[in-house]
């Protein structure tokens, strides 16, 4: 079983601890970051979605023009773009990139954020719509005949798409969401189910729940799992924790210094999170600043767990060991991003990614040898 590494493609420099500056979209930075991820050995990069950010399809095409192998995982919210149009957009991207497109379906866990793009469905209604949306995508990607559809959320007649994905049977579907409604839909359709890094026990529980739901649809072995985490590396464990503390202090200072308009946005974004994934991370953070061997939770606490915000802190060898512990319970893809996006992507490629892949191959060979005896 190979190990997949996913990075993240930002539109400009910045993170929870580094203030963004300059235009919201900086093509030169995006190009440099994409090339750095390809050089570092990442398989693909996630291009996130929010009501205030740039367009992921355009960002992917820009980055693809400056890379040769790197894949692009475009976050996409059902309800913003009609599924017939989205199917053609993703198929076109897959054609222009030579089979490097994938989609991260995010139904949305925050009512306020959804309404910024004009979406007024309730949480569970959004996931119901997502199931219908993905069914339409898959039909259009795989059918050579015209398609009629009459569902609760979408209706169309005689749809024919002349463009199909390079990848067969279709563009890979990555899925996010921790609520019961999310798991029911993801279990039916996801190729890869994306989780935020909790404790090993919590992650095992999530995998068990999702596989049980998938089994009801005959898909118990059809879903892979990815884990999103923020590695903080240094030559020694002591220096890694010093770096983590400096990141926390910088993040606190940045939040205090943020302009009133942005501060108000952050308060709305982080106050009493409604999505289940954030609530789960905050529950983990309540267990302590460090969970298991080295899962660090203080950035999650500071930000209200508004995103992928738990970190693994230590030397490259220690963090690799922790990633392999997650692999042992069923994770085979890791979305890793740092608090200094470009520098950390380069460091991961030099120190962490080769180490994890080498050790994973050794463990797989040892298991295969033992099974053959």
Automatic annotation (TrEMBL):
Keywords: Flavoprotein, FMN, Monooxygenase, Oxidoreductase
GO molecular function: alkanesulfonate monooxygenase activity
Pfam family name, one: Bac_luciferase
Protein name as it appears in the record: LLM class flavin-dependent oxidoreductase
Keyword check for Acyltransferase: no
GO biological process, one term: alkanesulfonate catabolic process
All residue ranges annotated as the Luciferase-like domain in the record: 18-332
């Amino acid at each position: 079983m190979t190990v997949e590494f996913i990075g993240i493609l930002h539109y400009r420099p910045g993170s929870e601890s580094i203030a963004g500056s300059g235009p919201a979209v900086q093509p030169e930075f995006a190009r440099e970051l994409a090339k750095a991820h390809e050089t570092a050995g990442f398989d693909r990069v996630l291009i996130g979605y929010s009501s205030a950010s740039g367009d992921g399809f355009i960002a992917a095409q820009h980055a693809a023009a400056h890379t040769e192998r790197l894949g692009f995982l475009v976050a996409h919210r059902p309800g913003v773009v009609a599924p017939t149009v989205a199917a053609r957009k993703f198929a076109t991207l897959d054609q222009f990139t030579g089979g490097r497109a994938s989609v991260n379906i995010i139904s949305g866990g925050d009512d306020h954020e959804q309404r910024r793009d004009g979406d007024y469905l309730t949480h569970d209604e959004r996931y119901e719509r997502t199931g219908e949306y993905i069914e339409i995508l898959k039909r259009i990607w795989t059918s050579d005949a015209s398609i009629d559809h009459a569902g609760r959320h979408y209706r169309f007649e005689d749809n024919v798409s002349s463009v199909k994905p390079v990848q067969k049977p279709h563009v890979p579907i990555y899925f996010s969401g921790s609520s019961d409604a999310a798991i029911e839909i993801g279990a039916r359709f996801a190729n890869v189910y994306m989780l935020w890094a909790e404790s090993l026990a919590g992650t095992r529980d999530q995998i068990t729940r999702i596989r049980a739901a998938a089994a009801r649809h005959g898909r118990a072995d059809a879903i892979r799992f990815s884990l999103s985490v923020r590695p903080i590396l240094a030559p020694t464990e002591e220096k890694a924790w010093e770096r983590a503390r400096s990141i926390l202090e910088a993040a606190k200072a940045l939040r205090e210094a943020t302009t009133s308009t942005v501060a108000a946005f952050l308060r709305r974004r982080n106050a009493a999170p409604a999505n289940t994934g954030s609530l789960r991370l905050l529950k983990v953070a309540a267990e302590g600043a460090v969970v298991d061997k080295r899962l660090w939770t203080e950035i999650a606490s500071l930000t209200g767990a508004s995103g992928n915000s738990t970190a693994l802190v230590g030397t490259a060898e220690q963090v690799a060991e922790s990633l392999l512990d997650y692999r042992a319970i069923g994770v085979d893809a890791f979305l890793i991003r740092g608090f200094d996006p470009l520098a950390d992507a380069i460091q991961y490629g030099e120190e962490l990614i080769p180490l994890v892949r080498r050790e994973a191959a050794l463990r797989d060979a040892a298991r295969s040898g033992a099974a053959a005896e």
